[in-house]
Amino acid sequence: AFGKAAHPPPPQIGAELQQKLVAKMPGEEEEEFYVRYYVGHKGKFGHEFLEFEFRPDGRLRYANSSNYKNDVMIRKEMHVTQAVMCELRKTIEDSEILKEDDNHWPAPDRVGRQELEVVCGKEHISFTTSKIGSLSDVMAS
């Protein structure tokens, strides 16, 4: 989804600022942190999806493709602060998602798929499941 953009790339940031953007909690060693989420399906309007990723350097990338009424793909990139990255990391850690296992989750189907990938220090998870639209879908799984 994050292929060649139709718009110019964002300005490059200096190495010093890039170092400040790595998600690191106070008093801890610098560790890699990355999050990617995708939800999509292939239907009568083609491949429609929403995807975002937070990269270790603080770059947030977003893509949204809907062919409804011939819409074009939306792609955005920006840099977020270390505070935002730390809060995202804290949310991931507090959720304990890194301890989960997707073996019993519903497999992707014709309705669609969701993917969640997280790298947090030495831990790396990559989950795939069907597209879940409501709490009743979660309870039924």
From TrEMBL:
Pfam annotation, one family: Mago_nashi
InterPro entries, per the entry: Mago_nashi, Mago_nashi_sf
Compartments in which it is found: Nucleus
GO CC list: exon-exon junction complex
UniProt keyword Nucleus, yes or no: yes
UniProt keyword terms in alphabetical order: Nucleus
GO biological process, one term: RNA splicing
Family: Belongs to the mago nashi family.
Protein name from the UniProt record: Mago nashi
